[in-house]
Write a structure and sequence with these properties.
Cytochrome Bc1 Complex, Chain D, domain 2, 153 residues, binds heme C
Amino acid sequence: MKRLIKKIGFLELIVFVITLVLVTQQGESYPSYKIYEHKIQDTKLAESIARGEEIYVDFCMQCHLPNGKGTPNVFPPLAGSDWLINKRKESIHSIKYGLNGPIQVNGKPYNSAMTPLGLEDEEIADVMNYIMNSWGNTQKKMVTTQEVADIKK
Ligand code: HEC
């Protein structure tokens, strides 16, 4: 009888070790889960950009133009704009609350006004994702509705 228990104990030990190995290997498959997370993130960004394009056409294009280049001395460019690339918060703020007074975009001065466009926070996030990922601009860190909501006057 004692010998039998000893035997079972040994078998249990083996089962335990095998389980341990399996669990450890599952732990190693964690990066593929992360890749999955990234894919969800990429899909969300792509969907936001697609919605943002419609907003751009309706609300921004008449000034910043279809190619995002704006009009020299009058409407600043969004394509390759150092302002947009470096001033993420200010860009969201300008779309949300408007912008006026002197600014420099890519070394050129502008001193005009952009009135607030009356967009919802989600629409602002979408149009930001569109302009930050168009005409050669690339910004993978997605603007979220929460990020827009957190920017106060
Ligand atoms: C009536 C014309 C007009 C419309 C419509 C307009 N803008 Fe602007 N935008 C301007 C002007 C003018 C400035 C510069 C304001 C200044 O000189 O202070 C500007 C500045 C900006 C800037 C910061 C400077 C830069 O070039 O990076 C961003 C970002 C921007 N606009 C995005 C948008 C987005 C997005 C929309 C649509 C939701 C939009 N604008 C609609 C005229 C417009």
